[in-house]
Amino acid sequence: MNDPVQIHASCAARGEQGIVLSGPSGSGKSDLLLRLIDAGYDLVADDRVCLHAGWASAPAALAGLLEVRGIGIVRMRYRARVRVVAVARLVSPSDHPPRLPPSPRCDKVVGQPVFFLDPAQPSAVARIGLVLDCIAGHRHLLDERQL
């Protein structure tokens, strides 16, 4: 990914790790981003994410803005950019991903491992933390051959 590209997504940072939250409008990206921020993650971008050479940032006009349904648009502290290490593809409960998916596939646009996540699950924030721990090497994600 050499040329800058802008996608409809959100992005949060934990330390030096960035996670892109992707999904269609109304899938819960901003709500999950709000829960991640509440859990100590940094806001990088909401609604639109600029990607360039593995880094994510907000478009200048949206930097530091978070849309909270039922409340409005809130200005808050944000991180200017972060290295993207994973993509959480948000799915609805009716789109059940397999219990034991094959080894993580890479997102075609971002070029990083993609995981499927129901953002309405109470464990959604913990699952993102677990994914980032696995990528950082603090935990080990087994594939089906290792079971």
UniProtKB/TrEMBL annotation:
The keyword Kinase applies. Keywords: Kinase, Transferase. The keyword Transferase applies. GO terms for molecular function: ATP binding; phosphorelay sensor kinase activity. Residues 6-76 form the HPr kinase/phosphorylase C-terminal domain. InterPro entries: Hpr_kin/Pase_C, P-loop_NTPase. It comes from the Bacteria. GO terms for biological process: regulation of carbohydrate metabolic process. Pfam families: Hpr_kinase_C. This is HPr kinase. It comes from Komagataeibacter diospyri.
